[in-house]
Structure formats: structure tokens, C-alpha cells
Amino acid sequence: MKVLIVDDSTMIRHALSKWLSDSGATIVAEARNGREAVELYRQHSPDLVTLDITMPEMDGLATLDEIMKINREARVIIISALTSQETTLSAIKRGARTYVRKPFTAEELTEAVREAAG
Amino acid sequence: MQLFSALEKLGVLPGDPPELRLQKNFMVYLGSAMSCGGLLWGTLSISYGLFAQSLIPYGYTAITILNFAYFHRTADFKKVRFVQVLISLLLPFAFQFVLGGFAKTGAVMLWALIALIGAFTFEDLRNTLYWIAAYAVLTAAMGFLEPWTIPALNLPASVQVLFFSMNITVISVTVAGLSYYFLNSRSAVMRQLWKAKSETDAIMGAVDQGLCLLDRDTTIGSEYSASFAGFFEGEQVAGSKLSFLLEKARAPASQEAVRDFIDLMFEDRLSQNKIRALNPLAETTLRAGEDGLHATTRFIPVRGNDGRVEHVLAAFTDVTARKKMEEELARTQENLRMQNLALAEILALDRASVESFLEDAEETLSVMEDTLRKSEESRDFKAALTMMMRCVHTIKGNASLLNLTGVVQRAHEIESQMQESLTTGVDGSSILGHLINIQDLKKELAALNELLLRITGFSHGAAAEHGFAVFAERIASEHGKQVQVEVVAPHPWSGHLKRGALRDILTQLVRNSVVHGIEPPAEREKAAKPAAGRVRILCSASTDCLSLKYEDDGRGLDVEKIRRRAVATGRISEQDSRSLSPSQISALIFEPGFSTAETAGQHAGRGAGMDVVRSTVRELGGTLRLASAPGKYLQVSIELPLPR
């Protein structure tokens, strides 16, 4: 499974990258902001995207919209924070498959990947 | 009987509401009754040799059986009832036409009336109107078509009358029977519904959770608990949108978020746990402010027979009381923390002031309690309360001077409550309430006292100067004196010393100066001194030593008075006293328990003051020198080694 990681925090990108590759996924690219994310999505057409909902440049929702425009069946997992509840709701409405809330565990992430794939 | 119960089950689904169940039963009974008529007429036709014509009544029965079989398989009520009404309406007319018209058949078309009754009971209102229209048109048309009917049945008039009688009897009884059955069952259903409703109402009225059912667009259903309405006081609840009501009640969640959330519950895409974690109303406020509410909410999907979410049950719980308690607790903790901070600062400045405040406050409180007890006898609660209010006010004023926010706040609350009592009327029980408040205040003061014992510290500069000035002025005013304190401390007063040591020393010196050294204003004026006595504190520090110069411009030490006092209290003999130098006699003031005052006042005269100074200095390994000019000044020089 090809995965694109989108997060402005290096730490979170590392964690996601490690956990996801441990569970057998291939990390095809990592993006630090929405603009890069859309660009890399076009390039790699990944099977799964993990998308940080609060990012500089292009915010998570706008990025999600762009990705959904490219592929209406895109599988996106929202990486949300406790404070971004409403934004997360909105993202789910706009087509994100599921979400995980920071701080999350490897198990929660795996569960979310399963949900998004199903 | 078995047949009956089999018919009752035909086409009925387990989840059917009672009304629908009744309609289905009714259609089946109607079809069955008319099928019997079909068999009767079919047999009659054959007995008269009319084989072709018999196909119509027999056909009716056959189609009905097929239709019911289909109904049994598919439970497609809509289709089945249409077919049933259609054949029940058309075939009697057709049969009458092929047999020879109204008169010859005994108006066999009347059987169609049963179809109409059926339509009334189990068809849609609109369709029923069409069926009535069709019945009317067909009946009228039969009148016009009478001359063209096929005269198949030619029987004597007496038999025709018999037919009439038979048709009318059977149809009347069927119609009446079916009507009776339907109305009776219907009222049973209504009773059942009514009972269910009143039970629901009772539950909805009693349950203290706010319950309601929501549609996908958050529209509130007609059944909701009384408590639910309470969350949205004065609003039309049924039929309104929850998202809208919430916005009107100024809930922090946006309308959009609420709508998205409810919508998500219907979509069934995410696990229930994940949806629940996104609940924007998990904890919310409504109508923030005085009469505001805090609520927690839960939303539970309600599924239909097909497993799809049909409604969402919203459950609101009022947690205002709990929330207020939590807030109160947090505020108290915050207050306490702030108070500790403020207190640490204040204590560093002038523990003495706080001490004297506490003493005063305690005295005031005991006076108040006295007043209260007396008011029990005199029954003059109003006077007692007025007096108590004044006392609380004094405590508040003093506390606020010292910036003791906790005490000020509590005293203020108590004062306001007393004020309110005074305006609304005072009786024994309201006094009791105030007594509890005062106990509360006492506790607050006790806590302060404990803190005071726990926290000692020393600060420097202007703050310390201010502290001592306040303290000195306070004592002075109690003794009818005036005093100005001047502190010169270019360097931070060292915390290297034992905590509080310097302050203890200075406190005693200031107390001693104000009570003993400084003269009342009149006396000072006579001696050509300014009315206000002056106390100067000069503090300087080198790397290894802290030196303190203390001076007042009071009457100085009265060596003779000290000598006499020492002899009078048996400290030294008259003879020994004669051999002591003036400075040796002066040093007697540092002896424990020595005081020249005849009686102990609140602030000095207990003789517990100056010995504290000497013992503290000794403890710190320092030296102490005393200098005095009678009528002019008293100087105390203290040198304290600073630990490296």
C-alpha cells in the first residue's frame, strides 16, 4: 500500500512513517504543507493519505478538497488535534474516511488505516 | 378458528404498527368474505346453466386467492390492496351486466359497495376518493346501459325479489360486520396507543434527562421529555431544529458543526466511538451567564427494521450544579494560590501588620458572636445584624489594606448578604445563616493564621519600609501617638540570614520605640520636637557582615526608671543596682520578661520584646550596642555576620 504523509511536524511525520512502514505500508512521499501534498498526490497517486488538519500554507480542509477533486475515491485519514473537533467533523463530511486524534498510538493508527481501507 | 388466525397473520410483518396490521387484516377479511359471495354466485350461475357467466364470481375467488398468495410472499400491501379493491369494484358490475341488469340480478353490483368500505379503511385518502368516484360512475353507467345488458338470467319476479333480499342482506351484514370489526379494533388500537402515549408522557415528564428524537436535519420530533424543554426555555421545541435552538441559546458549537455531527450519525461511516469523540456538544454551555446551564449530551442512533439509522436520540444532562462546584473549587484553589502569593509577599513586608490584623479580627468576631447571643434574648435582630455588618465591614477594610484578597472577598459576600437581610427583613433564622457565614470567615482567618505561622520570610527596599511604616503607624495610633518610619536599605536585605530574623528584630525595636520611646504629640511639642516621632532604620551590608543602625527620636532610656523597676521586680538588689554603670542598667531592658510598663498592652509591656532582639542577635553570632540620650534618642546598632 502506497502512503503519502502530510504533516508540518517532523516528529509526527517520523512517527507516522515508522509506524506505517512497520505495518507493511510503503511511504511514497512526505509533505510538509498542503501545497506539497497536492503536488505529491498527483505525482504518486497513493492508496492512502494521512493528512494533518492544522497546517500552515494551505490548511488541511483546503488540501482535502483539492485531493478529493483529483480523486473522488481518495482514502484520507485526518490527523486531528483535540481542539480541531469541528474541523475534523467538517473533513469527514467532505470525504475523509476517518481520523486519529493526537496524541495517538500505533494501534490507533493501524485501526484507522483498517477503517480507511475498508 | 385456525383459518381465522392464519388470515390474521397474512402479509403482516413483525414491525408493523398496530394500525397497519389492522388494515392488512381488514383487507384479508374483506377479500375472504367476498370470495364466499363469489362461490355462492358462481354456484348459482351454474345451477341455472350459465357456465360462461359463472367465470366472473369464480374468477373473483380465484384472483383473490392468487393475490393473497402473492401478499403472503411479498407483503407488498400497496399492490395487493389495489388489485383487491379493483376486482371487488369491477367484477360485481361486470357480473350484473352479463346477467341482465339491476332487476334481474337483485342488484348484484351492490357487492362493489364492500370494495368501497374496504377502500375507506385501508386505502390512502386520495385513492379512496378515486374509488368512490369510480363506484358512482359505474353505478350511474349501469343505469344507462341497462337496455344493453345481456339478458341471461330470466327468472320470475318472486325469485328476483329473493335475489334482492339475499344480496342486500349479505352485503348489509358484511358491510355492517366489517365496519363494526374495523371500528372496534381501531378504538382498541387507539386505546392502546393512548395508553402507550400516556406512559411515554409519564416517563418523558419524570425523567430528568432531556430526551428527544432528531431527524437527519436535526429537526426535533413531537415527543420529548419535559426536562428537554427546560434546556430551551421559552422556545417552541417540537418541529424546531436543534442546531437552531442551540445557536439561539448561544451554545459554543457552531450550527454547522452540530448539523455535520448529526448527519454523520445517520451516515454510519465511522465507528460509534469515533463519532462520539467528535460530539461538538459533549460538554456545552447554554445561555451563558447567571441563569446559564451546563449540559453534557449523548447522541444515540435509533435504527429501523432494516438496520438503517432512522432517528438520533438526543440525551441532554444538566450538569450545572456539578460544573459550578468544579468552578468554585477551581476558583478557591486559585484564590488560595493567589492569596499565598500575596501573603508571602505581605508577610515578608510586615508580618506584624497581619498579626495585628488577625488579633483585631478575632476580637471583632467574638464581639459579634456575643452580640448575636444577646440578640437571642432581646429579639432585636435588626440592631444585632446592623452591628455585625459594621464589624464585618471593618474586617473587610483592614483586610483590604493588607491586600488579603481571600478575606476581603469572603467578608464582602457576607456583608452583601447581611445588607440584603436588612432590607428584606430579619428574623432568628436569617441571623443563623449569618452566623454560619461568620464561622466561615473565622475559618478563613484561621487558615490565614496558619499560613502566617508557616510562611516567614523577609524582603527588602520600599516594600519593607512600607510594611514597617504601616505597622508603626497602626500601633502609634492605638497609643495616641504619631510616627514616621524611614528605612534606608541600599542593598537587598539579605535572605542569607535565618529567615525572618531581621524582621523579628526590627519588629520588636519598632514596637518598643512606639510604645515606650516616642512621646505623645503634646509632650513632644513641649520639648520642641515635631509632633510625629521619627524612626530611622539604616541597613547596609558588606561581603561578610550586615549592619543595622536603628534610631528613634523619643525620650531615650530613663536609666533611673529602669533601675527602680529592676529593683521593684526583684531582679537585682538595691545595693547591686547602685554599683552598675548606666549602660549596664540600660542593658537590663534586654532581660527576659523585663518591662517598665505597669500593665501589658496589646503591643508592648509584656516584656517579651527586647529580649527577643538580644537572643536573636546572639543566636546569629552578632553583636548589639545600645546608645541613648535622655529626652533625645535611642540608638541600637547591630552587626550580624553573614554566612558565606
Q: Mean pLDDT of chain A, as a whole number?
A: 87
State the shape of chain A: globular
Percentage of helical residues of chain A? 40-55%
How would you sum up the global shape of chain B? rod-shaped
Q: What's the Cα radius of gyration of chain B?
A: 52 Å
Secondary-structure element series of chain A: EHEHEHEHEH
Spatially, the strands of the biggest sheet of chain A line up as: 2-1-3-4-5
Q: How many runs of DSSP E, i.e. beta strands of chain A?
A: 5
Name the average pLDDT of chain B.
Answer: 81
Radius of gyration of chain A, taken over Cα atoms and rounded to an integer in Å: 12 Å
Strand content of chain A: 15-25%
Main sheet attributes: strand count, strand direction, barrel closure of chain A: 5 strands, parallel
| Count of DSSP-assigned helices of chain B | 23
Distance between the termini of chain A: 13 Å
Distance between the termini of chain B: 112 Å
Biggest interface between protein chains, with counts per chain?
Answer: A-B, 12 and 15 residues
Strand count, sense and barrel status of the largest sheet of chain B are:
5 strands, antiparallel
The quaternary structure here is heterodimer
* Total beta strands of chain B: 10
What class would the helix/strand composition of chain A place it in?
Answer: alpha/beta
